[in-house]
Amino acid sequence: MSHLSRRSVLLGTATVCGLGRLLSAADFWKQKEVANWTEEEIEKFITRSPWAKEANVVGSVESGERQETPRSGGMGRRRGGGGERGSPVMLKGTVRWQSAQIMLAALKTSLPEAFKDHYVIAVSGLPVSASGRRESGSSNTEDRLEDLRNMTTLRTTTQEPAGPDLVQRTKEGAGPFLFGFPKETLTIGAADKEAVFALEAPVFSVRTSFSLKEMIYHGALDV
Fold this sequence. Notes:
Blueprint: H1 3-26, H2 28-31, H3 39-45, E1 52-61, E2 76-79, E3 87-97, H4 101-107, E4 118-123, H5 141-151, E5 152-156, E6 166-169, E7 177-182, E8 194-200, E9 204-211, E10 216-217, E11 220-221
Antiparallel strand pairs: 1-3, 1-9, 2-3, 3-4, 4-7, 5-8, 6-7, 8-9, 10-11
């Protein structure tokens, strides 16, 4: 074998190995158990993976409305924040498929008992008055959650949109909103290619698509 041929083989092998490492790094959840993930890998998984999507929340807010303090995987204001009602804002954040076993393992948490037998979507960083109601004390918390419940749907490529029957907020009003969709009214299976979460509030909207064929964990669809 000539020197040039040996060099070509070595370069080709290095390229293949390098590509393999890149693919492995990109889909580390297919290669390693959750317990062996690094902190960096966990952060990537819970913010940018088939189970966690960056989402634009586009709309407007009232004068002086307080936004959540941006957190890891949460939403932060990108523009706007003027003074008048209707001031345009763009929030960037993450919509997570919280009920997936791999997501719960990565977050080292469990679902509230009320969400048993539900598909659960977690949305972080929505405006405090996410339903569009004016802030007037904690007494209206249940009303605002009910408004959000009526404004939200989850659909697949084979089924009509279904609404959640539960909406809660974790960490005593400081964490993400949890939207629970009962599995008895929305059955997600192998025939479904995509699931779309949509929240259409009076002052903003968010829409996120999940590719179900990519949400495979231990050989099965994990939602």
